[in-house]
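Try this one yourself first.
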C-alpha cells in the first residue's frame, strides 16, 4: 500500500509524462486517505500537470466534493488556471457539478472568471441549458453582461440554443 511505499522513502513529487503526481491522481479519484498521507509526506496540494490542471481542478472535474473541500482547507488555490484559462469553478460548471460549484462559490471563487474563450461559468451553464446552475450562479451574483470572445452574453448563447427559460431567468424573469 501507499503507506509502505512512503515509509520506504518513495518520493511524493515524481510525475508521469503528463506531469501528474500521485496526489493529482488521488484527488481526481477522491481518495482522501491517500491525499492526507501524501501531504503528510510532503506532497504539494497545487502541483499542476503539463496543462496546468491542479489536483483541485481535477477533483472539480470529477465532482469529488469532499476532496475539493479538503484540498481548499489545505492550501489549494481556488482560482488556479489551466493553460486555457479555466478555473476550478469553470470546470465544475462545465461538468454540471452543482455541489462543487456551490462549495467553490462559498470559498469565494471568482464567479466571473473567464477562460481563453471569454467564457464565464454563467455563459457555460447557459450554453449547456443548465437552468438550475444558471440560477445558482445568478444567486451568487454572477454578472449577466459579460461577453465571450465572440461578443455573446450568457443570454445570447442561451437564445441561440432556444433555451427560453434560461433567457427569461437571465433577464430577471
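Now uncover the answer:
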Amino acid at each position: 500500500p501507499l503507506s509502505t511505499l512512503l515509509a520506504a522513502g518513495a518520493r511524493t513529487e515524481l510525475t508521469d509524462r503528463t506531469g501528474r503526481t500521485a496526489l493529482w491522481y488521488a484527488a481526481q479519484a477522491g481518495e482522501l486517505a491517500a491525499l492526507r498521507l501524501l501531504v503528510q509526506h510532503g506532497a504539494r496540494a497545487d502541483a499542476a500537470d503539463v496543462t496546468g490542471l491542479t489536483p483541485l481542478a481535477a477533483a472539480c472535474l470529477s465532482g469529488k466534493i469532499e476532496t475539493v473541500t479538503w484540498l481548499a482547507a489545505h492550501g489549494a488555490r481556488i482560482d488556479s488556471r489551466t493553460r486555457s484559462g479555466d478555473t476550478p469553478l469553470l470546470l465544475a460548471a462545465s461538468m454540471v457539478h452543482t455541489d462543487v460549484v456551490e462549495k467553490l462559490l462559498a470559498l469565494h471563487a471568482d464567479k466571473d472568471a473567464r477562460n481563453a474563450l471569454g467564457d464565464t461559468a454563467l455563459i457555460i451553464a447557459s450554453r449547456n441549458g443548465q437552468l438550475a446552475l444558471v440560477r445558482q450562479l445568478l444567486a451568487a451574483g454572477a454578472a449577466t453582461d459579460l461577453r465571450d470572445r465572440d461578443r455573446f452574453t450568457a443570454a445570447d448563447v442561451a437564445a441561440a440554443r432556444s433555451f427560453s427559460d434560461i433567457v427569461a431567468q437571465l433577464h430577471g424573469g
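Discussion: The chain has a mean pLDDT of 97. The longest helix spans residues 32-40.
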